[in-house]
Model the fold of this input.
Amino acid sequence: MASRHQLQTMQFMDQASRSRSPRPDGVHGPPPPTPMSSPFSSRKPRVQEGQPTCVNLTPIPHTDGHLWRKYGEKKIKNSSFPRLYYRCSYRDDRNCMATKVVQQENDADPPLYRVTYIHTHTCNPLPPAPTPASVFTEPPSAKAEHHAVLFRFSSTSGGHMANADHPAVHHQQWQPAATTMVAQAHQLSMMCDDEQQAAAIRSGPPARRLSMFRAVVDGLRQMRSSAPPPSSTVVDGGWDTFSSFNLDTCEFSIDDELLCGDLMYSPDSMQE
DNA sequence: TCCATTTGACCACC
DNA sequence: GGTGGTCAAATGGA
Done:
């Protein structure tokens, strides 16, 4: 029997496959041959060198603030799960070339997905949604001279904001991992601010809550491993969930009880 | 009628 | 030649 959190996760998944029931397997015959003589003559290269990509490991791959249209699904060798291909819904309207690839990593509860984002969004949907792409629309700074990295996560009444404000975060080496972390934090923020999501989190086992928060920390850990910062401390700007993260010890500390949505966390609750 | 999803085919890359 | 990314017809719900 599925847990409440599992059901919530399934609801997230359903957003990607909403409204359309699958066709019966094998009901329709093989499609006729492609009528065009060279239908793929305008096909773009599969891999465009130098395009910005980042990888996000998340249990909720379909909640990142952007609208995606699925355009393909592929069974991948040596993987029990198909790979799903999405592109931005504004691809034609706004010439947004952002795409993402979702690959389920395991069958855990909740299952973990590897989401690979390719290209940054140029569609700038309204209201602006906090997504990895929206955070890193500025070109990466060539200078990473600061001695601390400031992350700011805030949840406002009108929507969610997630920013990595420090110029060092824009350093190219940090971008993928920082993007992952920001996306994780934003997903967690959304879940905590949503009444049903928060209820599911609250009713779940503490270990699951802890694992969710650790997903955020893991993003920071990736940042640290990809490019050690000039300073050892990440200072949180106030996303109400964690206050600081020590890049040397890979630990984050909680100053006091923290409010995330209607959930109150204390330092003890963050222990195993 | 519109539009998103499904799914097999096609094709580029290794 | 195998694998994976993309296309586009078919499908069906809104």
Notes: The CA atoms of residues 152 and 163 of chain A lie 5 Å apart. Residues 51-270 of chain A form one domain. The longest strand of chain A covers residues 68-75.
